[in-house]
Fold:
Amino acid sequence: MSMKTTVLNCKVDLCDKKTVLDLVFCAIESSKNFQIITINPEMIMNAQKNKDFFKIINSSDLNITDGVGVELALRIKGIKPERIRGVDLSRALIELASKNNYKVGFLGAKEEVIQKAKENFLAKYPNLNFVFCKNGYFKNDNEVIRELKTQNPQILLVGLGSPKQEEFIQKLKKELSGTVMVGVGGSFDVFSNNTKEAPAVLRKLGLEWLYRTLKQPERFKRIFPVLPIFLIKCIINIIKKKG
Ligand code: UDP
Structure:
C-alpha cells in the first residue's frame, strides 16, 4: 500500500520496494508513463525557490525516500518511512525488466561509465533487452528525445544529476508512452564500479552521505549548508502548524 505525505509542501510517498515494483509493473502493463523521483533534501530545498521544479516534484507519480535527510524530516513528523536507495531501486527495476523482457534505456554519466554500466548489467542478465544507451553530455535535447521516441524503452534510468534529470523527464513524459522514468543521479558511476558504494554498515546507519563526502570532499559544499537548513525549516514548519 502507498500513502502520501509532504515535506515542506513537497509530495513524498510512503511505500515499500515491493509496492514500487507493483506500481511499475501495472504502469508498464497498462502502457502508462510513470515518473519516480528519489527525493532528497537538496531537491526539496531547490523546490522552495524554483517554482517549476516544485511543480515537477508535485506532479511526479512516485517520490520515494532515498537518503537519511528526508527520513529524518519524516521522523520529525512522527512517520517512520522505508528508505529505498536509488541504486537498489534501479537494480530491482533491471531485474524486473530482465524477467519480463521489458525494453531498457540508460541515459546519463560519461560515455565510458554508461557503457561499462551496461556491460556489467549484461554480464548479470545476458537477455536484457537494451534499446538505448547514451551518455549524459549531449548538446541537443530534441535529438535525444527523437531517438528515445523511436526506441521507446519501458524502463528508462536517467542519471544527469538534479534538477537536470527531472526537467528532462518532464519533457519526455509528453513524448513517450508506457515508460517508467527514474532520475538516478550518480548511480551509473556505481554500476560501472567508477564509484564505490558505502560499506553496508554505513548504509544501514544512514551515513552513506558521510562516506560519499569523505570520498569526494567537493560534495561537502553541496550538502552542508542545505541539510541543516532543511531540517531547521522542517522543525519550524511543524511548530507553526501545531501552534
Ligand atoms: N551528469 C551528466 N550530464 C551532465 C551533468 C552530470 O550525465 O550534464 C552525470 C554525472 O556524470 C554523474 C551524475 O550525472 O554521473 C550526477 O551525479 P551526482 O553525484 O551529482 O548525483 P547524485 O547521486 O548526488 O544525485
The longest strand covers residues 34-39. The pocket of uridine-5'-diphosphate is lined by residues 108-110, 136-137, 159-162, 164, 185-186, 188-189 (CB under 6 Å). The first helix runs from residue 17 to 29.
